[in-house]
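In response to the reviewer comment on reproducibility (Comment 2.3), we provide here a single inverse folding case reported in full, input and output, so that an independent group could reproduce the run without further information from us. The structure tokens appear first.
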């Protein structure tokens, strides 16, 4: 069974911190979106790089791609088409932005629950050493946690690390 690749949007795919720059980083386009809850004022600006879709699809032979984002199923409507991705399964968070065990990021416990012992790689801009330690303490030894910078998003080194981790697992 292929490992999961759990993908956050804001930070890894949408380097939202870079929105304060005069122009998008190289390769990124600004898309205006109105996901649920974004009804007042101007549309939400989202930076996306279509090359990320190509890179993720290249990993799909080794991973099962899954959205691990607060966008939940709306990632398939608003983000996937701009990246050339098919609809992906998503983690349906039981609660968002709430308390978490041992000072971990609120998503961490649900990521482990969703994986249910299956190997996984997770890309997010809010992963910390506490999350790594907590996940290992849950007995999940086969996991790659890849923290991204919200100024730059996923970079080639991240895609290389994901491919290398999957290749190492293959044997």
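Designed residues, in position order:
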């Amino acid at each position: 069974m292929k490992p999961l690749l759990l993908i956050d949007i804001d930070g890894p795919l949408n380097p939202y911190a870079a929105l304060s720059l005069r122009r998008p980083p190289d390769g990124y386009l600004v898309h205006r979106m109105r996901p649920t809850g974004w009804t007042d004022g101007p549309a939400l600006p989202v930076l996306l790089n279509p090359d990320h879709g190509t890179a993720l699809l290249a990993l799909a032979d080794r991973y099962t791609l899954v959205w691990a984002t607060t966008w939940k199923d709306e990632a398939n409507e608003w983000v996937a088409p701009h990246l050339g991705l098919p609809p992906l399964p998503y983690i349906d968070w039981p609660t968002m932005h709430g308390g978490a065990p041992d000072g971990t990021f609120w998503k961490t416990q649900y990521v482990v629950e969703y994986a249910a012992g299956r190997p996984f790689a997770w890309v997010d801009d809010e992963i910390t050493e506490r999350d790594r330690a907590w996940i290992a303490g849950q007995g999940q030894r086969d996991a790659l946690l890849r923290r991204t910078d919200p100024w730059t998003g996923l970079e080639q080194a991240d895609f290389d690390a994901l491919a290398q981790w999957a290749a190492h697992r293959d044997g």
